[in-house]
């Protein structure tokens, strides 16, 4: 399935600010041309379907904007410099050029073409590289470089065109990862429960532009729209990869899965990335790959990215490349830096969750600490906070550094950084080891493992197990494992008859091949002690069976109480397994579907999909005595041929939520991403 790219060259280099306007000098045509050059350099353009851009029509623009405002914008086309400057001054942080109207129409048109390409099923997902950006613009006003609200228009257009067809409300999620608050989008959908708007933004207790009271976490929407506006304010600069991932795991993903949208639009601004002069944040380009990957699991993969801000040309371009590479289904890069969210981020997360508790089932068992306490405390603590995740990268506030030095330093960092990441992509994605009887059912894209002989594999298993290890099944499984480790394939699947024993072989072989960190998630009964070789293996076992076992850092067991209604164990995945996995940063993930496992196919597929974000997407799945349907679902996820629908959200049993909470508390000193509150 394909990814579409719409590139709006916006009359080449014409659309620039003609007069002196310091706030606007960063929004330049090179933002687009630089992205395009980088995409070319990494051979990404030819891997996408390019769709020509058209102008948005007046009717389309008026889905969001008033006709009076449209006339004002139209009138700027014929203006001389002085008039342009005067009209610009009527708005906050905006400039008009004689080509602005045409470019703004193209930006709208490109965004709508993208939505139509995705909605019609012509492509799975895509990105529109456009300017001017849109998320600040309002019904009657241009604002913050934005003329027409591209993403808001797209949401209205999709609902009108595809909602009416089906005579039902069409739910849309808008994720705004630009570093500024897209207040324009918030205002437009404030009372609308059919559009869930999420935005994180540099806020600094309302000191940062646009300095609105309505950008804080307690702006949850109004009237019928209460609960459908999510604001995550950043009260400090320097937020990095861990902070961004934590907000996705603890705020956006639970709410988004519960909301269950049919389409996801992203206001993809990259001023939230490292080196950006506006944002002053530290997230590296590969972080955007991970954010994209998370969002690809929603709405059957129907995901439309629309460029907003991003003013550090290199950071912007590399991040756009990472986004598109991920949309295309390439393996994900390692996230760099220590994975531990900072206190200020934890506080914001806690506050948003508390503010939304009453509107979302997944937050039902949140603690109800008065919000006032926390926010007062944060004012008192001020800048005293110590741990800051992004600190090992370039923090723009580093003493004594001029802005120019910073840009050069960030540039060099990005150059080194990107080289190794862009090469990731073995020719074959999936290798499979199954019995003869199943091979005819496999998708054509997989490589069927013929098996190697024991000598080739260099197996060092001795004693009682040595004979077993020579069995054909085991040899095939280890051959698949070896291909993954040697990066000949990205992932693999093997059928086994005794899952715990197979796992033991796999782990032994990993250790022989010197794999440093293996994450192993075992669902079902394990009934066997396995040597975890200190720190080299992290084992999480989820079972419906009770156990007396006590948890240690590297050996975690949890009993998931069985309940027919709630087989998806979603809260365990985003609230526990993923945070631990992201803290651990494995080099390989092994997922074992063992005996007596009680989870639904949807739950397993979701677990597997999300875990593909780790270990550069290198995953081995071992599967015991399971039905064909699950095997096929798993293969679909591994081969990336199709994004499944993970079933609708059902809230977890109170006991299970409680159990996850306790586990989180118990282990959050060891695995820092388990923290989700500033308490
Ligand atoms: C789209 C965008 C930023 C405006 C900043 C004004 N706008 N100071 O990033
Ligand atoms: Zn921005």
Give the class-level CATH name of the largest domain. Answer: Alpha Beta
Number of helices: 22
Q: Poorly predicted ranges (pLDDT <50, ≥5 residues)? A: 372-401
Based on the structure given, which CATH architecture of the largest domain is correct? 3-Layer(aba) Sandwich
Structure at a glance:
With 679 residues, the protein is an alpha/beta fold.
Could you explain the architecture of this structure?
With 679 residues, the chain is an alpha/beta fold. The protein folds into two domains: 3-422, Histone deacetylase domain (Arginase, Chain A), CATH 3.40.800.20; 428-674, Histone deacetylase domain (Arginase, Chain A), CATH 3.40.800.20. It has 22 helices and 16 strands. The chain has helices at residues 30-41, 58-61, 67-75, 81-89, 100-119, 150-163, 183-189, 241-259, 285-295, 313-327, 343-356, 371-381, 403-422, 436-439, 454-457, 464-469, 472-485, 499-512, 570-584, 601-611, 628-639, 654-667, and strands spanning 3-7, 49-50, 125-129, 172-176, 195-202, 229-234, 263-268, 303-307, 428-433, 447-448, 489-496, 518-523, 537-543, 555-559, 588-593, 619-624. The strands form two sheets. Strands 2-1-3-8-7-4-5-6 form an eight-stranded parallel beta sheet, with helices on both faces. The protein has an eight-stranded parallel beta sheet with strand order 10-9-11-16-15-12-13-14, sandwiched between helices. Helix 7 (183-189) links the parallel strand 4 (172-176) and strand 5 (195-202). The longest helix has 20 residues, at 100-119. Bound molecules: N-(4-aminobutyl)acetamide and zinc ion (ZN). Residues 23, 93, 133, 136, 144-146, 178, 180, 209, 269, 271, 308-309 line the site of N-(4-aminobutyl)acetamide.
